[in-house]
Specification:
By secondary structure, this protein is of the alpha+beta class. It folds into 2 domains: about 170 residues, 3-Layer(aba) Sandwich (Rossmann fold), CATH 3.40.50.670; about 180 residues, no CATH class. About 45% of the residues lie in helices and about 15% in strands. The chain contains 17 helices and 15 strands. The strands form 4 sheets. A 5-stranded mixed β-sheet has the order 2-1-3-4-15, sandwiched between helices. Strands 8-7-12-13 form a 4-stranded antiparallel β-sheet, covered by helices on one side. A hairpin with a 5-residue loop joins β7 and β8. α10 packs antiparallel against α13. The protein is flat, with a radius of gyration of 33 Å.
């Protein structure tokens, strides 16, 4: 609002309400001079102010472009469908479902496997844009996201209209591996941030394709998870396994002992990774391959005592004392089967670390349950040797697989159309997991942490939960 000083309504009030007109220029001059001096003397603060101003400007421009993109006649409108969409024949959204598929190869198999009357297929090329890190104008310029919005038909953001949904089942069907999980997460991020009412309405699902096919004689079976495969392979066999340690201790495997072995090995791997990070790969390898832990070494003095003693004949590595100094103990380890020798300096500070203490506790529990390695693992007439606790588990699974043919699917594109239909797409035989939203605030926080720009939060989440990982596909 501009005010003229000569307006009658401001007679007698000019000096009290508007002040001296010459004062404005004086204040501007002083402020500009002071601000210029401050910015010259504080370049980092000046850069932050400029960057914040630029970011605000870009955000305003992005919002304007987004409104234009979503409102004008464009490829995002539901009236125009993407060319790569293999649509279904039914027009009733309540009967229609769309499979969002990873890659053209899987898309081809899915098109051949589908029920053309009710099932549509939309293949996405590669990993779509991470919308958690992108401005809305960039999101809407992405071809794969455009195709997805266009196919679903609801629009996004402020323009979203649930009544325009062309399908009441939106199924994310990706490979059962790390890449597939990443692509699924990116798609879920888009749906949560820009089309959340689809989730609230119960329209979003995740397909559960099999990871394995096992063949036992003439019988075939599809397996979705590693844990399920393990359960099938060990069924009716586990308690017939006998494990004999180097000290002559012999135990039969039970469900409880097998669960204990699996749990302790996960903990062992997690603490070993921490120790490897803090003290180096060579030290971690030395502790993993030799019998230092088995001897109950708690400090440098007891380590030196073990190194000066004779190594038991059944140990794969012979260890002896090399040079010693105030900060490290030098261990000379020789592999008996090959004659390979390596020398490792073990820092004295290792024995006071949390990693070493936790590893000692884990290996002590393993030893009290199964005895000391190496182990003789037998099932009936079949027997294998295991040199470590980790190899004990591997040998049990290796023996359990004998006589069973196992095929692992690397991707949906490797499955024949009839296999894909029977295991993942046929409503009579498939398994779908509905995506629900119990706590929107918590979900928003989780998406921001795992998919956002702040790396520290994501790193902390990984570190806090690493020990809980049972099977890591890398």
């Amino acid at each position: 609002m501009s005010v003229k000083l000569s307006d009658p309504q401001f007679e007698g009030q000019t000096k009290t309400k508007l002040g001296n007109p010459g004062m404005q220029g004086f204040v501007e001059k002083i402020v500009n001079q002071g601000l210029a001096e401050f910015l010259e003397e504080h370049p980092s603060e000046a850069k932050a102010i400029v960057n914040k101003s630029l970011a605000a400007s870009r955000a305003r421009e992005a919002a304007r472009k987004a409104r234009d993109l979503t409102r004008r006649k464009s490829a995002l409108e539901s009236g125009t469908l993407p060319g790569k969409l293999a649509d279904c024949a039914v027009k009733d959204p309540a009967l229609a479902e769309i499979f969002i598929v990873e890659g053209d190869s899987a898309g081809g198999s899915a098109v051949s496997a589908r029920d053309r009357h009710t099932q549509a297929i939309l293949p996405l090329r590669g990993k779509i844009l991470n919308v958690e890190k992108s401005r809305i104008d960039k999101i809407l310029q992405n071809n794969e996201i455009q195709a997805l919005i266009q196919a679903i038909g609801t629009g996004i953001g402020e323009e979203f209209n649930l009544e325009n949904a062309r399908y009441h089942k939106i199924v994310l069907m990706t490979d059962a591996d790390v890449d597939g999980a990443h692509i699924r997460t990116l798609a879920l991020t888009l749906l949560f941030r820009q089309m959340q009412p689809l989730i609230d309405a119960g329209y979003v699902y995740i397909a559960k394709p099999p990871l394995y096919k096992i063949k036992m004689g003439r019988q075939e079976r599809y397996i979705e998870l590693d844990s399920e495969l393990e359960e099938v392979l060990l069924q009716d066999k586990l308690e017939r396994f006998v494990v004999e340690g180097s000290g002559g201790k012999s135990v039969k495997l039970t469900d409880a002992r097998w669960a204990t072995l699996s749990k302790l090995l996960r903990e062992n791997e997690a603490w070993t990774a921490r120790l490897r990070s803090d003290f180096g790969v060579e030290v971690a390898n030395l502790l993993a391959s030799t019998h230092i832990f088995d001897e109950g070494v708690k400090d440098a003095k007891s380590l030196i005592a073990v190194l000066k003693a004779d190594t038991p004949e059944d140990r794969p590595w012979e260890i002896k004392l090399g040079n010693e100094d105030p900060v490290a103990v030098q261990v000379v380890a020789t592999e008996r089967s090959t004659g390979l020798t390596r020398t490792t300096s073990v820092p004295i500070g290792l024995f006071a670390s949390t990693e070493y203490r936790k590893l000692s506790e884990v290996l002590s529990k393993l030893q009290s349950t199964f005895g000391s390695p190496p182990y003789a693992v037998s099932l009936g007439d079949v027997q294998e040797e295991a040199e470590s606790h980790g190899e004990l588990r591997e040998k049990v699974m290796e023996i359990a697989q004998k006589g069973i043919e196992i095929s692992r699917f690397k991707g949906l594109g490797e499955m024949n159309p009839d296999q894909l239909r029977d295991t993942t797409m046929d409503p009579e035989t498939r398994t779908l997991m509905q995506v629900t939203l119990e706590d929107a605030v918590d979900a928003s926080r989780m998406f921001s942490m795992l998919m956002g720009d702040v790396v520290e939060h994501r790193r902390k989440f990984i570190e806090d939960n690493a020990r809980l990982v049972a099977n890591l596909d890398v």
